[in-house]
Amino acid sequence: MQRRVRIAASVGLHARPAALLAQAAAAQAQPVTVAKVVDGEAGAPVDAASVLGLMSLGARHGEEVELSGPDEAALDELAALLEQDLDKAPA
Length: 91
Hints:
- It is found in: Cytoplasm.
- InterPro entries: HPr (IPR050399), HPr-like (IPR000032), HPr-like_sf (IPR035895), PTS_HPr_His_P_site (IPR001020).
- One of its GO terms (cellular component) is cytoplasm.
- The chain is of the alpha+beta class.
- The chain has a single domain, classed as Histidine-containing Protein, Chain: A.
- The chain has three helices and five strands.
- Strands 1, 2, 3, 4 and 5 form a five-stranded antiparallel sheet that branches.
- Helix 1 runs antiparallel to helix 3.
- It is globular, with a radius of gyration of 11 Å.
C-alpha cells in the first residue's frame, strides 16, 4: 500500500519532525518506508523509523512524500502526523 502526503512542518523533515515521525514509525508492527516525490515519481525509499534516513530525503514544507507499507492503519497514522506542523511544540 502507498499513501502520498504533503509535508506540513514549516521546516520540512528536519530534526524534530523527523524524530517524531521516526518514533511513530518504529512503534508500528510492520516496517514503513518514505520516499520523496519529485515530478510525480517517488524516489529511493528510506526506513521511516530512521531519523537520519528521513532527514536525508531533504523533504521541505509543501513537498510530497510517499509512505509505503503493508498496514493501512499505520499509513493513516503516519500520514496524519505529516499533515501537522511537527516543528511546533505541543500546547
